[in-house]
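Hello,

I think I submitted the nicotinamide-adenine-dinucleotide job twice by accident. Can you confirm which output corresponds to this input? Input:
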Amino acid sequence: MAVAIEREYGLFINGESVEPTAGEVRDVTEPATGAALGRAAMAGPEDVDRAVQSARAALAGAWAKTSPTERSRLLHALADAIHESRKELAELETRNVGKAISSVKGEIAASVENFRFFASAIATIEGRSHAVGGSALYYQLREPVGVCAQIIPWNYPLMMAAWKLSPALAAGCTIVLKPDPATPLTALRLAELATDVGIPPGVVNVVPGDGPTTGAHLVSHPGVDKVAFTGSTATGTEVMKLAASPIKRISLELGGKSPNLVFADADLADAVPSSVYAIYYAAGQSCDARSRVLVEKPLYDDFVAQFTETAKRLKVGDPLDSETHMGSLISRTHRDKVHGFVETGRDEGVEIVIGGEPGDGDGAFYPPTVLAGVETRMVVAQEEIFGPVVTVIPFEDEDEAVTIANDSKYGLVATIWTSDPARGPRLAGKIKAGTIGVNTPYTAPPGGAFGGYKQSGFGREVGLETLDMYLEAKSVLVSTSRKPLNPFGL
Ligand code: NAD
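Support: Only one job matched these inputs. Its output is below.
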């Protein structure tokens, strides 16, 4: 089905696009040009209530009892549908988020893989049974936790929706997904595709809206059993409080300030361009952005020079041009926030080697920026800037590299560049982060559990461990005794 990109998008509740009860419909813009891209409905509290009700009804219906093989078939069918719609989705996502289409194409391919992974992972859902002694049989049932509220940010709207929906669907849960109000379009299309392939109405509901109102209402809703949140650590803190009453299961994928350790023995032909990729991919608006590059002292000046020369070759511009490496940021407001951090760095005495000035024009462009001479306790080395700004910090030896790497409230990802085969595994045991890369900038292959230590959150995405977040383990104990047990001897 060909779908016009410039259209009005309703809320997606109970298998169909519906108007919001509160009647609010907003323009959705293209951050690279400032032009309108379409109009999308925003959910008010009554709409959230409707969506939760629809998810509860679907859970009580056939869905939670659908056979695992049927759920697997549907997840594969959805993967096929995303693949078949990849051109339309790529254009829609690129125009809505402003990031380079080359990045978006990779994210769509990863989303397809994600649905395929969980389609297969369904076969691993099994309850233990073990000898408990006496005349008793013990076994477990794995059951879906129920209705899941899933809240996602604007930086990877489709891929984050895929990360959230695929394990929940595999487990047999039903979902109310709240995308960011600025970037709701691909999540809404994904829900339409889910319905087209035969996932029953009410299983996937999508309610874009503002966080403190729509999002908060959803998180605290008594009809929700589990909250899965991806976003900033500050919002995650609020969400955790809101999810406490009434008690809900919760998982949080939060911010990062991830280190990229470059040792003097690293193969620079790989370490330099890969380190450039690791920060400037998605214009630095990525939770796993390696925004702290730690470099062994003898290499420091040479590395900064090579890194800067490579970063200068990045093509920044039209997100829809397949040659573009970096598009615009999500909004001019966000761009100003990023620039504010650079100004703070200037005040802190860092050297701005390249970049550091916002682009002209209507788009929210910011150039690749390198801050050198950075010390680990500076604001620019501690706070998540979430833009194309890298801080380069020198270290003396391996011990100091680990100390600086761990000198952060975050612990999402770390990357190590070295030609010493023992060093990567040695440091992997010492650095407090959920994912460690050794001589690779990549962080989240399908099936590789992804998530945080410390204030980067808890719970794991895209791995088999993720299924546990969406399943209850129910213990069943059966007496096999021929005689009454009569424990009190009455
Ligand atoms: P954000 O926390 O501002 O918003 C995330 C989502 O939460 C949005 O949908 C927003 O509307 C909603 N929200 C805001 N306030 C809320 C509230 N009170 N109750 C319920 N929902 C609320 O984050 P952002 O700026 O959109 O995204 C960037 C952040 O996300 C960065 O910190 C980034 O590191 C993080 N992130 C983490 C991962 C990961 O896997 N760890 C992945 C992507 C992004």
